[in-house]
Amino acid sequence: MPRVRVQGLKHQPPEWSFPVRIALTVFAALCCLVRATACVAESPGRPNVVFILIDDLRYDTFGFMGHPFVETPHIDALAKGGVQFTNAFVTTSLCSPSRASFLTGRYMHNHKVVDNADRMPDGTLTFPQLLQKADYQTAFIGKWHMGGSSAAPRAGFDHWVSFAGQGTYAPGKHKLNVNDTLVPRQKYMTDELTDYAVDWLDEQSSDEPFLLYLSHKGVHGLYDPAERHRDRYKEAAFPRPATMANTPANYAGKPMWVQDQRNSWHGVEYPYYGRSKQSLAEMYRHYCEMILSIDDSVGRVMQALKKRGVDRNTLVLFTSDGGHFWGEHGLIDKRCAYEESIRIPLLAHCPSLITPGTKCDAIVANIDVAPTLLELAGTSVPTSIDGQSFAGLLKEPTSKEHRRQSLLYEYYWEPQFPQTPTMFCLRANQFKLIQYHGVWDTDELYDIVNDPHEIRNLIREPKHKQRVSQMRQQLHLQLKQTGGLAIPLGFKRSHGSNRRSANGSNRATFPGHLIDDK
Questions:
Q1: What pTM did the predictor assign?
Q2: How do beta strands 159-163 and 137-143 pair?
């Protein structure tokens, strides 16, 4: 009777009994199965995707960022277990335009969603549509916002849960659109959306990859935390930024519109016209308390992935549609091109793909998410996309290849909020140029490395004259190359004829009908 040779057994007796031969054969088969399974785990193929988008969440309000009191253990765990992009930005810091850029990979001037009232044009191509065509099961759960009049399902999603416009935190008598059926609200918004997300994850088959697009309303104002978190930080000290003070030093070199905006809907002296009936410090504390329910949501989603055994091969991206001012330069909200407005958190977690606890300092943006996910899914990236994939940086975050040298930022003046002008910005690794359009004022240049709080405007310093000229050219070229000059804006070659006589009249004052006696 011939011997049975079993891989991995070096010493075999001269004769084997039949039961022993059967046992060893089964053992060998199991060894091969375990080895094959291990190979699959290390070579995951197309990953599942969970994209978690928060509203107005700053990059620095987390435990892992050293915040003085906010507790975010689940978000901290994402950072510890994945890669943190320390130079992540939006190309427009406004809800709907930014969300459209995440979905399309395109600048605002291309996807045409220029404010919070605009619907995404019919026929607009999004990455969920392409993943759906590539046999991903897709779900959208949360705030859509692009065109506030409808909560109807949009193209690209097999499963849909949403609401019209901004929605509300408390359920009240409001309803959600669940696959074209109106369903009464039951819970605090963040918790309810998470319930739907976890339920959908539990229903997914392991035969097909999935995309969960979880788009939270939180932590958008007005600030209304969950009851279990309300007043958790009531006694916490408001971290008043140094640039909030109304002093000549803070406003030296700043545009006039920034100083004027201090006393406006988006300023510290008249925030939201007092609608919240809270001080700035009270609003900030409630904002921080709202982050706690977001952290709970992240923990529940991660637990659901682990329960299903798909956590290793699921790419979780955690980010925000923009930053938020809390007093910097006398401002609140966002829109402007200062760092607190345009910088966002971006965490990526996928154990089979990413080395835990790593950081990447490359400049990445919301327009880069779409091409990244399409590349990882093995789907071709449309040439219409403006962003560039950072898939390679997930695997090698310190790689110097395929890094952009600068990023274009844009914001268009809104009739509803006339205090903030149209602006374009070129954000490079060290210097930032902010250029204003349609307003008689000064532009700005900052050395971000040595002046991270953007205090000293270098725009008129002789030693930076050549740099300013070069950056103006680069900014104009990026607009031109990406189709941003459909409305001819003109090439801003200099400061323009913007001077006034010291012997002439003073600047005009605001007319009486614009002044509230409050």
A1: 0.88
A2: parallel
